[in-house]
Amino acid sequence: MGVLRNSPNASPIKKSTTLQHLFDLEANNSDGTMIYSPESSKQSIIESEYGEILSIVSHCCSIFTFTDPLESPSEQDVKRLKLFQLLSFMKKPKRPLPEEIIRPLVSMLSANLFRPLPPSAKRIVVCELPEDEDLFSTLSPAWPHLQVVYEILLRIVLNLDPKVLRGYVDERFLVNLLSLFQSEDRRERDMLKNVYHRIYFKFTFYREIMRKSMNDVFLHYIFDSEMHSGIGELLEIWVSIINGFTVPLREEHKLFLMRVLIPLHKARGMQVYHRQLAYCVNQFVQKEPMLGGTVVRGILKYWPATNCQKEVLFIDELEELVENIDPDHYRKLALLICTQISRCLNSLNSQVAERALYVWNNEQFVKMASSMMEEVFPVVVEGVEKNLKWHWSKSVKQLTENVKTVIEEMDPDLYDRCLKELAHREYLAGQEDIKRKENWERLELAAANNHQFFQPQNVYMHHVSERRI
What we know:
Elements: H1 12-31, H2 38-60, H3 73-91, H4 99-113, H5 125-128, H6 133-136, H7 143-159, H8 162-165, H9 171-179, H10 186-202, H11 207-225, H12 231-243, H13 251-261, H14 270-287, H15 292-301, H16 308-324, H17 330-345, H18 350-358, H19 363-370, H20 373-390, H21 394-410, H22 412-468
Helix pairs in contact: 2-3, 2-4, 3-7, 4-7, 7-10, 9-11, 10-12, 12-14, 14-16, 15-16, 15-17, 16-18, 17-18, 17-20, 18-21, 20-21, 20-22, 21-22
């Protein structure tokens, strides 16, 4: 028995679907209009509301090199104007952007940003002249467009939900973004630093990946190429990251200090980023003063032998470390640090010698030295007396006199005893020199006698050989 149309057992869903299907068929047969669907309705709404934005995004996908003479300057200006319109829209979004807008927008940003960078033009010259780095920086001709593109990317990161962006700003996007730190344009690196830093703190699920990627860049720079323009900017990001570490530090973070930050001291271009590097290292020591010994030994390991500019920077960093080291470690590190400072104050480079002498104005350094006076004083007194006798610079000698006064006031009796021991060592060294000279004189005299002894025999053999001929 069939189900009646008006029966309560009839399916309302089947009925409505069937009627709708019939109505659609009738509509298609009569006037040719499209069948209604929620997807097409949503797409029409997006096109009506965001049509202009989509048009602007599409136009901005065109890339200009600014080096090709065939490129039209007017078209470049039009694109820059449209980029500003897009930036204005991103600064004041009426509501969260739909995915249909985010996808082409991120694609446009990728097309503009991720490009092959020109080969480095500065090479090692910047490493020798860090204060004149801007003179050797290469400015990107496409910066009028890139600047606005970076601003748009920053607005996207700040305004949109990271969970929504996760499908578009993925690991590959971050790796490509990190590679742009090799740009020689300082303006671009500054913008990159801001954007990458914001992504790190908003996209918490990417933090470990981003830290590992930056570590890979550092290790490649240290042990392979020693050519990278953005080490300083990456270290500035790490300054903020280290500041957020909780105490006690995780083993991963300590390994980063020992395997990455300390070896960064040995690179030839260290002067360019030393300020940021020293700040990172000091933050570690401030958080865990027990790490001071590890850091000091690491810095002494990479102490420069011939580069006076680097040596001055190392002395600066060593003095800052002394102020943050755990006082319980003074006795373990005092002799190591004071020995290195004494070597530096005997340097023939006046800048190195003066910087080493100024360390004695630091109260914490004097306190550390006084904790191991018996072991430290012989080394320091020898360095001071050597400067007063032999150094060529009058200013160094004057500063050495001041340091001598400070040291004598700490323990006059110990200073006099060290002077006597120094004089005794010099006497013994003089005796060794005299003995060495006497030995050489005896050898020379014996050699001369042997020459005279063998000379007649040689003459006789010569005559015998002539007779045989």
